């Protein structure tokens, strides 16, 4: 199962599904731009009354219909209308080749990928806390655990109910990310996305958040992952065998084109600094996934 900090192992991708299956772009709806008035249809002049000559010369045009103005101010209840949360686009490249973009001052959507015990949650929280622009950390685990009755226990294995719960949690996280981004707030999401399950993994996140999502893989060595997993308690602690299987499948990200950070010898602040360096390169030259 794909799980941000500890999960059962989901089955691999079924044969016949390509590595980029399901990476659909946001739908484009034809029609006029929302909020733009089309104005009333032209009305022909009335016929002349009996005994009077028809008017000569051009008919004066009807006055233009007023165009909608800026959003209304907050009402008495303090409600402020929010802009629509559309999919996030690909970040614009730096204006000059020599200029290095500053990822700490740019509105971004980041997906931090890694196995249980990679340190995704710790790095994501630290990175969000130390940016110069407002940034939200959206944890798939936290959203999934809102379900109290019928909870999908990571130690109980992978089944239809648990897969449905994870799909719902990802859609909820994606919706939250789009709303944050629409209001100028960056976000970082963390999830254990497997390279052999693109439709429900990376492709699903692209559909939920948008094509501008920047995925980065956090993949320390197996011994580090096992050590961190041993420090866990409750249902977030997995068996060593399960951790080893998850880590082995995560190795499939090598050669995928995604940036990979080996944080085996890095603490959380150092990993966050490397993450900024990786994101700066991704903003300057967005990769094709």
SS-derived structural category:
alpha/beta
How many strand units?
A: 5
Major β-sheet annotation: 5 strands, parallel
Looking at the structure, what is the overall shape? Answer: globular
CATH class bucket of the domain at 103-281: Alpha Beta
What would CATH call the homologous superfamily of the domain at 103-281? P-loop containing nucleotide triphosphate hydrolases
Give Rg in angstroms. Answer: 26 Å
Kindly, what is the distance between the CA atoms of the first and last residues, rounded to a whole number of angstroms?
A: 22 Å
Q: Determine the number of helices (DSSP H or I, runs of at least 4 residues).
A: 7
Helicity level, as a percent range?
Answer: 25-40%
Name its key features.
289 residues; alpha/beta; Rossmann fold; 5 strands; globular
Structural overview:
The chain has 289 residues and is α/β, with parallel strands linked by helices. The chain has a domain at 103-281: 3-Layer(aba) Sandwich (Rossmann fold). It contains 7 helices and 5 strands; from the N terminus they run βαβααβαβααβα. It has helices at residues 120-129, 140-144, 160-182, 202-209, 222-230, 240-250, 268-284; strands spanning 109-113, 135-139, 186-191, 214-218, 260-261. The protein has a 5-stranded parallel β-sheet with strand order 2-3-1-4-5, with helices on both faces. The longest helix is centred in the middle third of the chain and has 23 residues, at 160-182. The radius of gyration is 26 Å and the shape is globular.
